[in-house]
Amino acid sequence: MTDRSRTGPPVPVGPRHPDRPSPHTPVAGHGHSVPLGRVARIPIRLHWSFFLLPLLVVVVDWRAGGRAVVEGLVWLVALFASVVVHEIAHCLVARRRGAVVLGIVLFPLGGLSSVESIPDGPDNELVIAAAGPLTSLALGAVFVLFGLATSGHVWPPTLFVGSWLARLGWLNLLLGAFNLLPALPMDGGRMLRAFLARHRTNLEATVVAARVARVLGALMMAVGLFYDFWFLLIGLFVLLGANAEEQAARHAPARAPGRPDTREPQSLG
User: Fold this and answer.
1) How far apart are alpha carbons 99 and 117 in whole angstroms?
2) What CA–CA distance (Å, rounded) separates 118 from 97?
3) CA 7/CA 16 separation, integer angstroms
4) Sheet containing 101-107: which strands, arranged edge to edge?
């Protein structure tokens, strides 16, 4: 159970399996999402906004014909399958470290894993945050090597044409590398905060990491204005996420260096 205060009569709660969250624990995006299934006992849900993506694919590819639409939808499934693998890696490592995994919610810009608590110590946040990108990089390397072994086209990097092995390989390599950018709330930003929290309070570490994130978010938005609309959206997501992380840290009880808050539900990148 979390330490959130509740009004009304107490609700009796019996013994709980360590991998089962309390029925009263909120999950980010849960109220506006639909269940997709479970992997390794981890619930996976689709946020309502996710359904705008297949609609966008259909609209964009419609003029190219039905085959282009189908290929676009298959690629969308492959993309988010890679995202799910990335998020499951976070959850499994978090569970192994003693956290209670709440679930994964998929949004148009990626996935969000939620845990009821993260065990004390910046090393735990560092390891949990690193698990997703490292898994994506390893999976990408495997796909690229299989592509080479089967004489597939793997260079130059490609995402939308050519061998599926090469495309999935570069997709996962890009997913892993991009998430290592030191910008909260992305994995690299959480790793930066965990590194800073070794010798600072969690608030001080979060403030520094949020400042770095704002700079990177602004740069992404600038790139998006001139080159790619998606960078504009991602940059906006980084700015909003960094502000949210800093505000959460400012409202959390003061803690000594190396002792992150473990009482409230946490979101992983």
Assistant:
1) 5
2) 8
3) 22
4) 33-39, 42-47, 101-107, 110-115, 266-268
Token pair 């740069």 is found at: 219
d(CA 141, CA 133) in angstroms, rounded, equals 12
- The overall longest dimension of the chain from CA atoms, in Å, is 66
pLDDT per residue, tens digit, the chain (269 aa), is 333 333 343 333 333 344 444 443 445 545 578 999 999 899 999 999 889 888 988 888 887 787 888 888 988 999 999 999 999 999 999 999 888 889 999 988 888 888 887 667 788 889 999 999 999 999 999 988 877 777 667 777 777 777 778 888 888 999 999 899 998 888 999 899 999 988 888 889 899 999 999 999 999 999 888 887 778 888 888 888 888 888 888 887 655 444 444 444 455 55
Nearest to 181 by CA among 224, 228, 227, 220: 220
Query: So which residues are the catalytic ones?
Result: 87
